[in-house]
Amino acid sequence: MKKVLSVMLAATLMLTLFAGCGGGKDEPAGGETKKAEAAESKDSGDDGAGSGSSEGGEVTLAFVGPQTGDNAEYGKSMKTAIQIAIDEWNEKGGVNGQQIKLVDYDDANTSEQAASVAQKIVGDDSISAVIGHFSSGVAMTASEVYEESGIAYISGSAAHVDLTKIGGCIYRNNSVYATDANTMLQIVQHLGLKKIGILNPNSDAGVAVTTEIQNMMETYGDKYEAELVLAELYEDGTVDFSATVSKFEEAGVDCVYSSGAYAQTAPFIKQYREKNKDVQFIMSAACFSQEFLELAGADAEGVVLGTSFFYESSDEAVKSFTEKFNAAYGSNPSTFAAQVYDATYAILYAIEKGGSADRADILANLPSTDFQGVTGKITFDEEGNCPKQQVLLKVEDGKYVEIPGVLKSQTDYEKELGVQ
Asked: pLDDT-derived band of residue 70, with 50, 70 and 90 as boundaries?
């Protein structure tokens, strides 16, 4: 039954994916060669090698994210975190003796606006590098512009596996969907759940994470006991989930996973709790925020999720960042805020190491990034990804608490299952 269901889900999801992808672009090129080419371009004389030079004693970085619309809180919090990182460097004299300035742009989390903003950024020679964009589809649209123009871009939230395959200028400091999928399956097993329902946004990202889960369950086969019994997609802006709740109830799921933003997942949870108080909700790091707790209210109780960052860590750097973020923003930092904070440090270390804020020089030094950030060890692999270890959090009495010792790396988990 599991195999038949998986085949049906695969067909449905792939039809949705192709229907939602406009343009029919070629498959992104492999990242390994692209990263090497970008690192070597410093001496190649490519056009744009001097762009981003810091005239007038300033180094300028750009942030792009949603500052209007349903996802505005993500963008505003990420901008705050980046500014904190810049302020910390400026208080110590800047980078290579030059002060750092942040310019920010609103992409409203739409591909159309992101493409327009990306063109403005690459056309401004004073901008050395770019951080941000919230969702995968939006980030991938903008990344093609950055790649063509030779400017370094680091995401702190876009998890689609193809993002960093676009080319040598594209990096990320957040987990990919394979990590998120594996984390969800570990949580299901840890809690002894058997019948999984999935609710994800009807987007490239939503389809991708659902497909990752599906593929992993096929790989794990009978060594993984739980079954994926129903996968549903919702449109952006959906407020009434009653029909979806009924489908999950009829399917007899005992848990529901969603990678969606809190603006949709919180109302879904509230509506589901009206019919079933016992179903277990497993969310992604997109719901690790004060806004989710406030929107879901008492119905958030018992929700679990995996994240690469927890503000109650005993680490002194995490404590310092959390204190500064609270003072500036009025709430604890999210995973995405912490990840762009570390991304900012990665760019500034690359500028410091190369003694230059030129775009090509930053690209030459990003591959050797190696420091301890608030979201763990910050190093980039050949494709420009930063591997993330996640911890398990649970909502108890209206706040997040850590459940230690549960989550393993995907490699260690698969060894435990005996599938390697």
From this structure: confident
Token output for 259: 């990678």
In total, the chain counts a number of residues equal to 420
Across 315-333, b (16+ Cβ under 10 Å) vs e yields eeebeebbebbeeebebbb
Find the radius of gyration of the CA atoms of the chain: 21
Between the two ends of the chain, the Cα-to-Cα distance in Å is 24
Helix axes 204-220, 2-20, angle to 10 degrees: 160
Q: What is the reported pLDDT for 40?
A: 64
Of residues 179, 175, 123, the one with CA closest to residue 151? 123
| Cβ 174 vs Cβ 388: under 8 Å | yes
* Burial tier of 27 (Cβ tally within 10 Å: 0-12, 13-18, 19+): exposed
Which stretches does DSSP call E strand in 30-169? 58-65, 99-106, 127-132, 152-155
- Model confidence pLDDT, tens digit, residues 220-258: 999 999 999 999 999 988 999 999 999 999 999 999 999
The dihedrals phi and psi of 242, each to the nearest 5 degrees, come to -60, -40
d(CA 108, CA 347): 24
Tokens representing 154 are 């680091």
Residue 246 to residues 188, 200, 238, 375: CA-CA distances in angstroms? 22, 16, 16, 38
Residues whose CB is less than 8 angstroms from the CB of residue 349 and which lie 6 or more positions away in sequence, other chains included: 365, 369, 371
Give the single-character DSSP code of 417.
H
